[in-house]
Structure formats: structure tokens, C-alpha cells
Amino acid sequence: MSDVLIQGGRIITAVDDYVADILIHDGKIEAIGRSLSVESAQTYDATGLFVFPGGVDVHTHMESSQGPAITCDTYETGTISAAFGGTTTIIDFAQQEKGESAKATFDRRLELAEPQIGIDVGFHLILTDVRPEVLSELPDLINQDGVSSFKMFMAYPDILMVDDASIFRTMRTVGTHGGMVNLHAENGAVIQVLIEEALAQGNTSPKYHALTRPRIMEAEATHRAIRLAELAEIPVYIVHLSSEEALQVVVEARDRGIPAFAETCPHYLFLTIEKYDIPGFESAKYVMTPPLREHSCQHALWRGLRFDDLQIVSTDHCPFCLNEQPLGINYSKQLGKNDFSKIPNGAPGVELRLTLLYDGGVRTGKITLNRFVQLVSTAPAKMFGLFPRKGAIAVGSDADIVLFDPNKTHTLSAATHHSRVDYSLFEGREVTGKVEKVFLRGELIVDGDRYLGKSGKGQYLKRSASGAIL
Ligand code: URP
Ligand code: ZN
Ligand code: ZN
Ligand code: ZN
Description:
This protein is α/β, with parallel strands linked by helices. It has a domain at 55-372: Metal-dependent hydrolases (TIM Barrel, Alpha-Beta Barrel), CATH 3.20.20. It has twelve helices and 19 strands. It has helices at 75-84, 102-113, 132-143, 164-176, 188-200, 207-211, 215-232, 244-255, 266-270, 295-306, 353-362, 369-383, and strands at residues 4-12, 17-25, 28-33, 42-45, 50-53, 55-57, 65-66, 69-70, 87-95, 120-126, 149-153, 180-184, 236-238, 260-264, 312-313, 401-411, 430-440, 443-447, 450-451. The strands form three sheets. Strands 1, 2, 3, 4, 5, 16, 17, 18 and 19 form a nine-stranded mixed β-sheet that branches. It has an eight-stranded parallel β-sheet with strand order 6-9-10-11-12-13-14-15. Strands 7-8 form a two-stranded antiparallel ribbon. A hairpin with a 4-residue loop joins strand 1 and strand 2. Helix 4 packs across helix 7 (215-232) and helix 7 packs parallel to helix 8 (244-255). The protein is globular, with a radius of gyration of 21 Å. It starts with a strand and ends in a 19-residue tail after the last strand. Bound molecules: N-(aminocarbonyl)-beta-alanine (URP) and zinc ion (3 copies). One zinc ion binds next to loops. Its cofactor is Zn(2+). Belongs to the metallo-dependent hydrolases superfamily. Hydantoinase/dihydropyrimidinase family.
């Protein structure tokens, strides 16, 4: 592979902001400086563009089953979509079947993903069946396989939910080996009662998805998760935090010095609960968990992002088509046409994270450019054991680089995105700031509208266990 030289861009990292050239050799950043010149290098002019480290999205669900449903992006299409959005690393999930060993879960997922991925990929392991034999496998997964984070669900009873004892046991085991526990924090048992009540009253429309998942039940589970982690003396990471009340719990814990961390997602920052008032089944587009919240929560979330009570913005990309065709009912929200509780939970977004956060966060003055890079790249890399290989523009780091035009205005639409999903949460939204070129380990994989990457060229990332201290 010949050397690559990116000239004259404005390099923005979590802490820096300066104009310089970047020389890439063998997929790594070899030098950063002014007026670098290498005769044989393939040269790109980045004058007038921002140069960001590649995005790191630590919450995606590709080819992921949810009961009878399966998300409509494969590892191939999902990583292409991510690449167009300036994301060069995702951490996806390997989900344990009941009765399955944790190692088998990981091996099965890696085998499925590896030939397809166009960007680099790591896995969190989702534990659904926490037996003693399974716990005994976790140290090797952390130390040998590079799976250093384990996710459990406090919601979705009978399918994914595990009890507090399982969570606590996992925390103890994982904590001893420097790993991290991620929690979907909602009180699933109580939510189940609310769902049964709603259905018994004949309330079957998508709106009831939101009405049966109250903010205080997210806060309750967040509190429980953090207290369990506190007792187990392990850092804890709350996924897709959506409500003011849950954030308040995280803030309180952090003020006490507890290593509690949390992410939020663009849909909670930019959309509100009124979307469920759209008549008919169209509002099923917004059936994700937790649901969209009231406008006041957005103020709290932005404040949390600004003051580091929230450390990461991930997408929770979990795409199901609105329509049954062309992919079939199992890839579609239509499974819940007559019963909101059967609508597959999740929404797309892996392609829009950088653009939305830049347009709606940086340009509006809610966060700085450096904070933007911290939230979408550096903090996720650090939190999950990938830094400084990922999340940095520094000598020796992987040359995962995004050239971003801060002034280009474009309109978001399902017609132009690269996911297989048939809708966009942000259809018609005009944004300023566009990903122009994306390099993965020095190779140009996105150039404007052209995808130049290749399936299988992404690498599986073994992550270190030393994350969680930002
Ligand atoms: O609605 C969502 N978030 N679906 C994906 C599964 C999960 O809860 O993360
Ligand atoms: Zn979740
Ligand atoms: Zn407001
Ligand atoms: Zn998720």
C-alpha cells in the first residue's frame, strides 16, 4: 500500500484544533506536520475541510434478532451505511441464546460478521443466561478474545431480561478482570404490567409503546444498576439514556465519585414524544426503547453532554422497515400492526450521528467542536478499550480519518441513505456539515457518493480491558 498524504486540513481532535498535513504509512499515522511532502504518496487536498478521527459507534444492532424479527441491515449493509456517516468503528453485539456458552456466542457472531464488514468491528457480549459455567468463561473472553464489555437487559421479561442476582454476579466476575458491564436500564416487570393493562383496555396503537415505558421506570432501573455496580466495585455504563430523571441518577452517583457512565442517542436529542401522535401506523417508525421523551428531557441531555455527565453519543442503530416489502414481514414493524407490544423495537441512525450532532450540537453552540469529537470518537474509544488505536489523530494511531465539509448543506432522506431500512427518522431535515471522504486504516473507503470499501476488509477489534477511566 502506498503512502497517503492528507494536506492542509483543519485537524480537530478532542483537544486540538490546528491546520497540518497527515502522512499515513501502512495504515497508521506516521507523521503530522506542516508542509510534509513525500514524492510517492497519494495526496489529498483537505483545504477548508475539518479532519476528524473516524467515528466510533459503540451501540449498533446488525442482523440482530428480536423474537421473530431481525434487523434489516446485514453486517455488510450496516457497515457501509456507517462508513458513509463517517463512522469507521462500531461495537455491535453478540447475543447469547439461552443454554449457549458465551464463547460459542462470540464465535458464532464473529464468523457471521467477519466476511461482511467494511469497517472495523468489536463486540459486546449480551448475556441472557447467566449460569456459573458461563461466568467462568468471561475472563478468557476478556483477556483472549478482546470482548471486554458485557450487556444485560433489565427490560424485556421472558426474552432478554436477567434478574438482579445475575447482574450482580456478572459485575463481580467482570470487575475482577477489568471489564465493563453495560445495562439497558428500564424496570421490565413493571412495564410489562402497564403493557398488559393497556392491551386489556384495547389500546393497541404505537403511542402506547411510549405511554407504557415511563421515565421514572428508566430512572428506577438506572439507580438499581448503579447501586449494584457500586456494591460490586465496578464501573457501569448505562446505554441509551433518554430521560431527565435517569440522568439525574447518574449525576448524583458521579457526584459521589462512583464510576457511572452513560450514553444518549441522536433521536433523544432531536425528536420528542409528539411523534407518536402521527396518525395511523406511521408512528411505529419511532418505536424504539426507551421511547422518545418530552422536550424538557432534551435540555437535560444537552446539559449532560456539555458537562460530561453523559460521555458518549451512540446511535442504537436497530433498523426495522416500516413496510413489509421488499424484505419481508420479519424485517418489518408490521409484525406489530395490531398490537404495539409486538412492534420490533428500534430505529435506524448509524449513518447520521456525526452530521446530526455537528449540525444540531456544534452549529447551535450547544457543544464545542472538540467536545463533538470527544463524544463521537475519543470517549467511546477510551471507554471500550480501543484508544489510542482508535479515537485519535496521533502518530501511531490507525489512520481512520474523516474529511468533513462544515459548510455543505444537504437534506436527510431514506432515498439517499445507505442502510436497507425504508425510512429515515429525520426525513426532509436540512443539515449543514457533510462527510466528504472517509479513510479506514489509510484506505479511502468513501469518496463523496461513492463507496470504495470492500466487504471483509474491516477487521475484528480485540479490545483491552483497561477502559472506563476517561
Ligand atoms: O429499541 C431498541 N433500543 N432496540 C434495540 C434493543 C435495545 O433495547 O437496545
Ligand atoms: Zn436497549
Ligand atoms: Zn427548549
Ligand atoms: Zn440497543
